[in-house]
């Protein structure tokens, strides 16, 4: 496979627009409810497949109906799912997302089988043989906080594999554990809140530069409607977001990662790859769920 996404797999149940939770047994009628494959590994994998990048995903789901759905929908979208392990007696990770009219997304979440993913669940040959390995959600995959996994990443990088990393949560207690991965990745793609918490910096530019000093070749901080900030050894550059109507921000970070990775696969430089990530994220923001708006998105890669 050209790309392997490795880490968090989640089933999302999304509903919009939700202005409040009904009292008692009341019912609110909505415009739309969807169920999708999501999470920092699964969501990125689905988007990569939709924009024409060969991708395999590796992670853990439960031996339950939600796991059946997640594997089925990812395979239907074109992802190689043979690296996803089923954990008996565990629930597949899932989230319920009531989407506000402005696209905001509070959540109810069960972490499930993601917490049990370990080095023994991984196909080492796929990791070392991929052109790009995307680490999705290393803040919550505690079983991979393992010197043996760091050694595997080093082996892959020595063989020429590019390592990218995104996070899942905005929980301060998890940020420092994820920080230990920074010497082992080439590109780190946190959101603004994650970058600030992980670095302890007072502003996003200082946060990006602080994290850059810990090993990555570039740090790309996503800023929501403000676009993204890219820090490299050459300095800091801001890439503006596209002006599009926002329906739901779920999966925009994963879409940005997918577009960025596709840009790297296509031989673009960091800023051009970030531009492709921005364009793919804008597509996803226009619909409900992490795989929304991607019909015809492969054309974005061909547009330069």
TrEMBL record:
Q: Kinase: is it a keyword of this entry?
A: yes
Q: Which UniProt keywords apply?
A: Kinase, Transferase
Identify a single GO molecular function assigned to this protein: kinase activity
Q: Which GO terms describe its cellular component?
A: cytosol
Give the matching Gene3D superfamilies.
Answer: 3.40.1190.20
Every copy of the Carbohydrate kinase PfkB domain together lies at 14-290
GO terms (BP aspect):
phosphate-containing compound metabolic process
UniProt cross-references to Pfam families, sorted A to Z:
PfkB
PANTHER family in the cross-refs: RIBOKINASE, SUGAR KINASE
Protein name as catalogued: Sugar kinase, putative
Query: What is the originating organism of this protein?
Result: Streptosporangium roseum (strain ATCC 12428 / DSM 43021 / JCM 3005 / KCTC 9067 / NCIMB 10171 / NRRL 2505 / NI 9100)
């Amino acid at each position: 496979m050209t790309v392997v996404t490795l880490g968090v797999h989640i089933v999302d149940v999304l509903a919009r627009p939700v202005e409040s939770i009904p009292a008692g047994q009341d019912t609110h009628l909505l415009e739309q409810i969807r169920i999708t494959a999501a999470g920092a590994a699964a969501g990125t994998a689905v988007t990569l497949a939709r924009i024409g990048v060969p991708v395999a995903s590796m992670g853990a789901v439960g031996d339950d109906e939600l796991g059946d759905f997640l594997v089925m929908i990812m395979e239907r979208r074109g992802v190689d799912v043979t690296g996803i392990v089923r954990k008996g007696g565990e629930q597949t990770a899932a989230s319920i997302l009531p989407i506000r009219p402005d696209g905001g997304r509070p959540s109810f979440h069960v972490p499930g089988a993601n917490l049990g993913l370990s080095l023994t669940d991984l196909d080492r040959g796929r990791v070392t043989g991929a052109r790009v390995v995307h680490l999705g959600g290393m803040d919550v995959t505690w079983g991979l906080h393992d010197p043996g996994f760091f050694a595997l990443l080093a082996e892959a990088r020595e063989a020429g594999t590019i390592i990218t990393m995104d996070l899942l949560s905005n929980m301060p207690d998890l940020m420092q554990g994820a920080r230990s991965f920074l010497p082992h990745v080439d590109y780190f793609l946190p959101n603004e809140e994650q970058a600030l918490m992980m670095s302890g910096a007072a502003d996003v530019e200082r946060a990006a530069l602080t994290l850059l000093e810990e090993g990555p070749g570039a740090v790309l901080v996503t800023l929501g409607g403000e676009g993204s900030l890219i820090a490299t050894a050459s300095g800091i550059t801001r890439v503006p977001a596209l002006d599009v109507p926002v329906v739901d921000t779920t999966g925009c970070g994963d879409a940005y990662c997918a577009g960025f990775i596709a840009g790297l696969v296509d031989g673009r430089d960091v800023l051009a790859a970030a531009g492709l990530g921005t364009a793919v994220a804008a597509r996803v923001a226009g619909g409900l769920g992490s795989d929304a708006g991607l019909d015809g998105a492969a054309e974005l890669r061909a547009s330069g």
